[in-house]
Amino acid sequence: MSTAVTLNNIVKRFGTFTAVHPLDLEIEQGSFLTLLGPSGCGKTTTLRMIAGLLDPTEGDILVKGQRVNTVPIHKRNLGIVFQSYALFPHKTIFENVAFGLKYRNVPKAQVEEKVKAAMELVQLPNVGDRYPSQLSGGQQQRIALARAIVIEPDVLLLDEPLSALDANLREDMRVELKNIQEKLGVTTVFVTHDQGEALAMSDNIVVMRDGRIEQVGSPWDVYNRPASEFVAQFLGASNLMDVRAEGAGAEKVAVELPQFGKFEVDTTQVPKGNASAKGKLVLRAEKLQLSDTAAKAPTGHVTANGTVEAVDYLGQSVRYFVHVGDEKLQAINTVGQALFDQGAQVQVHFDPQNCTLLGD
Ligand code: ATP
């Protein structure tokens, strides 16, 4: 696989404030990469540097191996979609989509053909004569996407493009956007603070915090093998338990939790550089299960006694807060499994394979 975009030691400072600390990243040709993190973590700044809207203070940006730091935005072959649709209000939809092509002096017949194809791809083939104000928000966002892809960009840059849409439309657009990206095979960098969006759409997720990368990995990796407490907490509900570990560096690491006893995890469950004698065990809330007797726990699970402190009914699932010794743990179980009331004595159990062990 070849690399479409490379960021080499990119830094961005605004005065004395460092928004992006030295950051390295390689984005694979044709892949969908998401910059994910809370507000202010530097994802938009990173995207804007790739776009050429901001100059990096230090470091190099390469697109297809060519350094583009000094190449102005209109000479980088990029498609950009922002949260606000940013369509030209006084141009028709056709003129909006055609804009980048006319700018590139593409012959008229080809412009017609390409605009038609792009509008078909976003499933709005018949609105060319209308003006942006005559379209809904979702339709305008599709047109913004058509305008970005019509030029066959080397990289498609998407800055929270779905966040102005209402919840249902957003989910539909998520699927559509991903389908279009796959169909075109265009390298895409997507910025969002929405974990669900990132998990559903990405080939790779870059989790950012305070201008630094916390973890890069597939959706499965960042969700199931978080490399830090921050990632574990940012992507869904997690239990973090203090543990003692033995055999760091070996194939199997013996872990001891006061209430659950001793059990083993293997090296794939210990992020690199994270092994130490004292650590934190991360367990997703939906991987912690409750039953009324220990006999119901599947073979291989480790178990402990607990008391249900609180119950939140969430519709498709129930969230329990359970006291296990000194720990307060969360369990999210799908409805259909046994239901427990506040105060119930329960067996709490989990499969050690589902944990990640972090160093202290
Ligand atoms: P959001 O989701 O809120 O857009 P973000 O992760 O995209 O957040 P950035 O917009 O990249 O964050 O901002 C990163 C940090 O840099 C923030 O603390 C922000 O206040 C700061 N920042 C961004 N642009 C400027 C600027 N032009 N001047 C000064 N500080 C800035």
Q: Find the CATH superfamily of the largest domain.
A: P-loop containing nucleotide triphosphate hydrolases
Tell me the helix content.
Answer: 10-25%
Record the strand order, biggest sheet.
6-7-8-3-9-10
CATH topology of the largest domain: Rossmann fold
Using only CA atoms, what is the Rg? 24 Å
Strand fraction equals: 35-45%
Q: Number of helical segments? A: 8
Order of helices and strands: EEEHEEEHHHEHEHEEHHEEEEEEEEEE
Describe the sheet with the most strands. Answer: 6 strands, mixed
Any overview of this molecule?
By secondary structure, the protein is an alpha+beta fold. It has two domains: 3-224, 3-Layer(aba) Sandwich (Rossmann fold); 237-359, Nucleic acid-binding proteins (OB fold (Dihydrolipoamide Acetyltransferase, E2P), Beta Barrel), CATH 2.40.50. It has eight helices and 20 strands. The strands form four sheets. A six-stranded mixed beta sheet has the order 6-7-8-3-9-10, with helices on both faces. A five-stranded antiparallel beta sheet has the order 13-12-11-14-20. Helix 5 links the parallel strand 7 (155-159) and strand 8. Helix 2 (93-103) crosses helix 3 (108-121). The model has no long low-confidence stretch (mean pLDDT 91). Bound molecules: adenosine-5'-triphosphate. Residues 14, 17, 19, 37, 39-45, 193 line the site of adenosine-5'-triphosphate. This is Putative spermidine/putrescine transport system ATP-binding protein. Keywords: ATP-binding, Nucleotide-binding, Transport.
